Amino acid sequence: MKTIPLILMGCGGVGRQLLQHIASCRSLHFKQGLHLRVVGVCDSRSLVVAADFLNKELDDSFLSELCRVKLGGSSLAKLADLGECQVFVHPESQGKLLEIASHLGKSTGLVFVDCSASSDTIVVLKQVVDLGSCIVLANKKPLTSTMEDFEKLFTHPRRIRHESTVGAGLPVIASLNRIISSGDPVHRIVGSLSGTLGFVMSELEDGKPLSQVVRAAKSLGYTEPDPRDDLGGMDVARKALILARILGQQINLNDLKIESLYPEEMGSSVMTVDDFLGRGLLLLDKDVQKRVEKASSNGNVLRYVCVIEGSRCEVGIQELPKNSALGRLRGSDNVLEIYTRCYSEQPLVIQGAGAGNDTTAAGVLADIIDIQDLFP
Amino acid sequence: MKTIPLILMGCGGVGRQLLQHIASCRSLHFKQGLHLRVVGVCDSRSLVVAADFLNKELDDSFLSELCRVKLGGSSLAKLADLGECQVFVHPESQGKLLEIASHLGKSTGLVFVDCSASSDTIVVLKQVVDLGSCIVLANKKPLTSTMEDFEKLFTHPRRIRHESTVGAGLPVIASLNRIISSGDPVHRIVGSLSGTLGFVMSELEDGKPLSQVVRAAKSLGYTEPDPRDDLGGMDVARKALILARILGQQINLNDLKIESLYPEEMGSSVMTVDDFLGRGLLLLDKDVQKRVEKASSNGNVLRYVCVIEGSRCEVGIQELPKNSALGRLRGSDNVLEIYTRCYSEQPLVIQGAGAGNDTTAAGVLADIIDIQDLFP
User: Fold this and answer.
1) I want to staple B342 with a disulfide (CB 3.0 to 4.6 A). Which of A15, A18, A359, B233 is the partner?
2) Second CATH level (architecture) for the domain A180-353
3) In terms of domain of life, where is this protein from (chains A, B) (predicted)?
């Protein structure tokens, strides 16, 4: 039996879903000779660790109680009463994480699984790399910080996986890594990597005004509470940056050309959400409609995409052929077109749901299983 | 530096392309701390091995000469004059392969890379599994033989890779394995896995008769020399069987329902190729046209696909919605739709060129790089 010890960072929706997936896959993984041993779980404030972390783990019933506590909005500290575990609060929690890594990293092996959405994990992640730990990320922040941080995390490229940082569980990173390792040069990547913006852009085609489409997207639950968090393009930019860096571009987030669907004067420091939805958006309708019509007269449609090509990496609205994979996109699926020597005229296309806790956590779990050969 | 010793079986188009890819990726792989050491190459008759195979390899200039010899239609035996290599002919070659595997399999590790299209490799492959060797396949035959053979080859599931057995280099198997290992249950796979049949079925939509479309496909070089080798569906059936077995179906090739696009009385033992193309196909036009029209009246199109669902695995013509990924397919791309818990309403779609020596060999090379963690 091969054992993979792991520490989960972040127990929001994705982290809790991951714990559920791990529990429900126990017998499947057991058949494959694998045991996933959850040694500790932390959020931004606290860390819960199995008291005897060298030999024991937080078992599934404990983890299920942990999820209940977090879902109820309580602190992980509440779990201290359950026994057989220790709770550390920030900043002691950081020291404990390093202690665990130095004990387990180079002996049994250890995976730090970052399912948070925070930049606060970067410091610890960089340190545990040197202690022999593996890293699995759903969190985009560590890979979209400085190039120095990025390169530090990739010190041992086989010990880091991050499928769920782009397109959730869609096999984007795995496929791209296969292409790169086979020496097939990537000429161009074009991708619709936001379910929200994919939906919005495809709905515009039918002649609906932007204001109406954004309101519909919000009421369908496709957007963030403030839809400007989607419309600004920053989330897509982070994904684009990760793809560009994998392809070897040495760039930072502020090197990217990012087109926002709303102007600065409608930003959240100027306008409330309600004002933006009620009044601001209406002012954008006419311009957007003109662009849609112009594209249509060229036989094209508009898509909000990332384009990565040579030393170029940008994010914004592009006119694309109606009959391409991206042009045919309807609804909230993500679509990625990869052009390489092998896929030169027709691209390699990967399409499917690119968001959701279930698929994101599934991508993380597949990453953990994928690094099993690094464990003794 | 990590070294991966390998033996190439089959030096037809795919095998020769693989040797070229390996040579042109030398510096890329060197940067990653990897060295691919080609210890031997065999075809159906002969085996060429580095004379001192424990320490030496067949270098790139030797392998380039080997490709030239094979392309010219000569025997590998011709290479004996070049020195530093030994040539063995069948059946001595088999014994030599086992000798190499028993020396290298459990010490340095060894990969048998089967790029042939023959069933003759199965006996050796099953034996080297027990000697600790890894296996990478582009050849479908070893995985579509008996269940006993299949299970033997999967004795150590981490030591076998076979991406290029389905959809050439398209990341089909890698993606499916990720889905399975994350516990996301696969409900249904529908795929157009023949470039020829994908082209034929999409051309029929425009009202063109089957006879004309098949002749066009042949003149475009999309078909085998005898197009019945494509139209019979056996190649698609082998791919379907591999997918079904990965999903846990314990079935054999003759358990599959396979629809042939031509009747038995037009088989190759009854009719010449020219007769079939000139006369036979014309007799099929009317029936096919009727089916196309019926589908169209339902808002659907016809596609030649594999369907794998529950304990069902079949291959043939299906009516599919015009606006699905499969329905929108034009040309010779492969398309796979995977329905799972995570991808339940909209499937995960993988699309792209599913044939060609370049992409097939690229898939094989990515597989080899993917198992590097198993090597010391």
Assistant:
1) A359
2) 2-Layer Sandwich (3.30)
3) Eukaryota
Topology match between the domains B2-169+358-374 and B178-353: no
Per residue in A263-284, pLDDT (tens digit) is 999 999 999 999 999 999 999 9
Q: Measured between CA atoms, how close is B45 to chain A, in angstroms?
A: 29
Q: What is the pLDDT of residue B83?
A: 75
Cα-Cα-Cα-Cα dihedral of A150, A151, A152, A153, to 10°?
Answer: 50
Q: Please tell me which residue in B141, B239, B257, B290 is annotated as part of the active site.
A: B239
Which single residue is written with the structure tokens 């043939």? B316
ipTM over 0.90: yes
Residues of chain A with pLDDT under 50: none
CATH of domain A2-169+358-374: 3.40.50.720
Distance between CA atoms of residues B337 and B300, nearest Å? 17
| Residue-level pLDDT at B298 | 95
Chain B residues touching A347 at Cβ < 8 A: 352
Q: Are strands B348-353 and B333-340 parallel, antiparallel or unpaired?
A: antiparallel
Q: What is the dihedral of CA B259, B260, B264, B268, to 10 degrees?
A: -150
User: Taking CB atoms and an 8 Å cutoff, what residues of chain A touch B171?
Assistant: 171, 174-175, 178, 348, 350
Kindly report the nearest CA distance between residue B224 and chain A, in angstroms. 21
What is the CATH architecture assignment of B178-353?
2-Layer Sandwich (3.30)
Query: What is the DSSP track for B35-78?
Result: EEEEEEEE-SSEEEEETTTTT----HHHHHHHHHHHHTT--GGG
> So where are chain A's domains?
2-169+358-374, 180-353
Give the integer Cα–Cα distance in Å for A253 and A144.
Answer: 7
A141 counts as catalytic: no
Nearest Cα residue to B163 out of B125, B121, B115, B105:
B115
Q: How is B259-317 classified by DSSP, letter by letter?
A: --SS-GGGSTTTS-HHHIIIIIHHHHHHHHHHHHHHHHHTTEEEEEEEEEETTEEEEEE
Contacts of A368 (CB under 8 A, 6+ apart): A4, A6, A36, A111, A113, A136, A161
